[in-house]
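Before going further, learn to read the protein records used in this course. A complete example follows; check for yourself that the lines match position by position.
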Amino acid sequence: MNAEVIHTSVQRGLDGGTGFAVAARTGGMPRALVENISALSGLHDSWSGASDWDRTLRATRCIKWSGDLHWVGSVIRPCGVDHTGRGNRIAHHRLLDASEVAVSDPAQILCDHEQWMAAWQGEPRELDAPAALRTATLATTAALTWQKLFGDAGVAAEMLERAFQSGVGAWIVLPAGSDRLQLLQELVAVLPQGNRWKRGWSTRPLRPTSETVSVICLVDEREPEVMQAPVHAAWMLRPIAGSAPKASESMLARARQGGPSAVQSKPISAAVVNVQWTPPQRLTAPVDAVVAPITPTHPDLEMQPQEIRKPIYIQMDAPPRASKGLWILAAFVCAALAAAAWWWFRGGVA
């Protein structure tokens, strides 16, 4: 990991302020970057009777800083009470660079509980380099939990294709008490590796937005935001048990049958981070993935702009003209014949 930020309720924040503020951050991080990441620390109220596990928000989101896009992994959870006796929460954010994204999966990062802080202790301070990130790519396994819930693992493929078509993200509304983290793992595993970072992911509702990269949220049907949202909102998807899923054949096959085995987990060496902190490798702006297979164009029909062929005009030669001498000869012969005819006629009359 390049850097991390801890945001929770403290008597005095590392960068000033009291109450919810920065309790810790990697040494030397630019102030503007810390503020951008800290803005992701909110935790909305949940339904009555929800457990701390239900209330925990796990998400990967994209932020724009210094003209570039950067991925941030976050786990935000309740953590008892603060120094005033009020309910507290802790937001642990990890900034990911391009090399880590290339060898990891969003669901795997969020499911590795040992990498996420559950509470903050001590005075606010700057942190040394974070611990090495354990990474692994998910196997493309059958979506068995989706099959158990909805009768057909292909429902996962349908939800993915519909969510990717939305320009503002999507909420996939799940039955009460569903294991959203497990469902998230299986959903991400259905996607080809190259498409897994084309969207953000969350286990609780996040506001639909077209800014940066949209987020696909797996949400419990009891969430207050679900109750308040328009019933027919285009970004709210409700899987229906027993229905025949509509998706491309390749995606249905991946959801129902699975695919290659997972790459073995391996650590990434943590870089030394100090006051001379350098930003992570820059990420190019993600391009929306097309989940359904694209019919390839025949190479013979593809032309680059500079190769567009212009019409070819062929100049035909005019037929050869008769020689001037031939015309004179023909005229002389005609005159001679006319004279002979006239002479014969005169002789005959005499």
Summary: The chain is about 25% helix and 20% strand. The chain has two domains: 1-137+268-278, 138-262. Confidence is low (pLDDT under 50) at residues 261-277, 279-320. The CA atoms of residues 136 and 265 lie 4 Å apart.
